[in-house]
Write a structure and sequence with these properties.
The chain is of the alpha/beta class. The protein has a domain at 4-62 and 71-120 and 211-322: HUPs (Rossmann fold, 3-Layer(aba) Sandwich). The chain has helices spanning 9-14, 32-46, 86-105, 117-120, 124-134, 137-148, 249-260, 290-296, 300-310, 319-322; strands at residues 4-6, 19-24, 52-57, 61-62, 69-71, 112-116, 158-160, 167-169, 174-178, 181-187, 197-201, 208-211, 231-234, 266-269, 272-275, 278-279, 316-318. Strands 1-14-13-2-3-6 form a six-stranded parallel β-sheet, sandwiched between helices. It has a three-stranded mixed β-sheet with strand order 4-12-7, with no helix packed on it. A three-stranded antiparallel β-sheet has the order 9-10-11, with no helix packed on it.
C-alpha cells in the first residue's frame, strides 16, 4: 500500500525502486533545499543499479497566493540574462548539479531524465487524465475534498494562460463543455493587455497552469518507456500542514493519487532546513545557492551527503548543524 515516508533515509537508501520522481519550481536559483531534494532522488537510485530518476521542471506550477494576476513560470524571464527564460536556467542548473551527483554516486548519467512539465502535458495519456478528473463529477469531488479542502472549487486548481500577454488569473475559470471538449473561460487582469476575456481548452498543451498539489498526478501516467514511478521525493515543505484539518501536503498528494489509481507511488519527504528556527528558502532569502556552495567547496556533494547520512533521523536541520559540514 502506498504511504508517506518522512525523513527515513535508511528506508529510502535500502528500498527497492525502479523509478523515482521529483519536481523543481523555477522561481529562482537552485538553493540548498533544492539540492537536498535532488540528492534524495539520487539516494533512491544508489542501491538500485537499474533504476531511473525523472526530474521535472514545473514550468506550469502555481499557488493560490499571487493576487489575481501573475506571470506563469513558463513565461518568466531569466533575471541573470544567461537564458531567455527562468525555466531554462533552472533546467541547466539542475543538469549541472545532477552531473556532479552522478559522478559522486557512480550512477550512469543516462539513468537521469530532466524535462519540463509543459512537455508532459502534451502527452495524450496526461491529457486524458486531466479530462477524467476535471471533467467528471467524481474527479471534481475528489479534488474539492482532498486538495481544496471542501471549501473551494476544483476550478481554482487551474489557471489558463492568456495567449496575448502570457499572464494568468487566479480567479477560478468557468467550465464550458462544448461537444465533449472542456474549455476554461476566464478574465485577463493584466492592465497592459488588450484582451479581457479569453477561453482555453483544458487539454491545450502549455496553455493551463496546474496547482502544485495536483501536478504530481504525472506519476500515474505511463509514458511507455519504462516502469511506473514507485517513489516521489518532496522537500521538507510537504511535511507541513495544509489547511485546518491537520493534513500535510504530502498526505493530500498521496490521498489524491490513491483516490485516482491503485498504482500510486510511495512519497518520501526530506527534512526541513532552518536557521534559528526559521525555514530556509528562496522566498525568505536566507538560503545558500548551489552556485555559492560549488564556488566555495569542491566536494559540496560529499559534504551534503555526509550531513544527510549523519543526521538522517532529524526532521529539521538547523544551520548550527550545517556549519559543521559547510565552513
Amino acid at each position: 500500500m502506498s504511504r508517506v515516508i518522512t525523513t527515513d533515509l535508511a528506508e529510502l537508501a535500502n528500498g527497492e525502486f525502479q523509478r523515482a520522481s521529483l519536481g523543481l519550481k523555477p522561481s529562482g536559483l537552485i538553493h540548498l533545499g533544492t539540492a537536498m531534494t535532488l540528492l534524495h532522488g539520487m539516494i533512491a537510485l544508489s542501491n538500485n543499479p537499474n533504476a531511473s530518476l525523472d526530474v521535472t521542471v514545473m514550468d506550469l506550477d502555481f499557488d493560490l497566493q499571487r493576487g489575481r494576476d501573475f506571470m506563469s513560470y513558463q513565461g518568466k524571464t531569466d533575471p541573470d540574462g544567461c537564458h531567455g527564460f527562468m525555466r531554462h536556467h533552472t533546467l541547466g542548473e539542475a543538469q549541472q548539479a545532477l552531473t556532479e551527483m552522478t559522478r559522486y554516486f557512480g550512477i550512469p548519467s543516462d539513468k537521469i531524465k530532466v524535462s519540463f512539465f509543459g512537455d508532459i502535458t502534451e502527452q495524450p495519456q496526461f491529457q486524458k487524465y486531466l479530462v477524467d478528473i476535471f471533467g467528471s463529477e467524481y474527479g471534481r469531488r475528489v479534488l474539492k475534498e482532498i486538495v481544496v479542502g471542501g471549501n473551494g472549487k476544483s476550478t481554482s486548481l487551474l489557471a489558463p494562460i492568456c495567449g496575448s500577454c502570457s499572464h494568468s488569473s487566479t480567479v477560478p475559470p468557468k467550465y464550458k463543455d462544448s461537444d465533449g471538449t472542456l474549455n476554461l473561460k476566464t478574465t485577463c487582469f493584466n492592465d497592459e493587455c488588450a484582451v479581457k476575456e479569453y477561453q482555453v481548452r483544458l487539454t491545450e498543451p502549455r496553455k493551463v497552469n496546474i496547482f502544485y498539489l495536483v501536478d504530481p498526478i504525472r506519476d500515474l501516467i505511463s509514458d511507455g518507456i519504462g516502469p511506473k514511478v514507485d517513489v516521489h521525493v518532496f522537500g521538507g515543505d510537504y511535511s507541513l500542514q495544509y489547511g485546518v484539518d491537520g493534513t500535510t501536503k504530502a498526505e493530500r498528494v498521496l490521498n489524491l493519487m490513491t483516490a485516482l489509481s491503485d498504482r500510486a507511488p510511495d512519497i518520501y519527504v526530506g527534512p526541513i532546513l532552518t536557521f534559528n528556527g526559521a525555514k530556509l528558502g528562496k522566498s525568505s532569502q536566507n538560503g545558500f545557492t548551489v552556485t555559492s556552495l560549488r564556488q566555495n567547496y569542491d566536494n559540496w556533494v560529499e559534504r551534503l551527503h555526509s550531513m544527510l547520512t549523519e543526521n538522517q533521523e532529524k526532521r529539521r536541520l538547523d544551520m548550527s548543524t550545517m556549519e559543521k559540514y559547510f565552513r
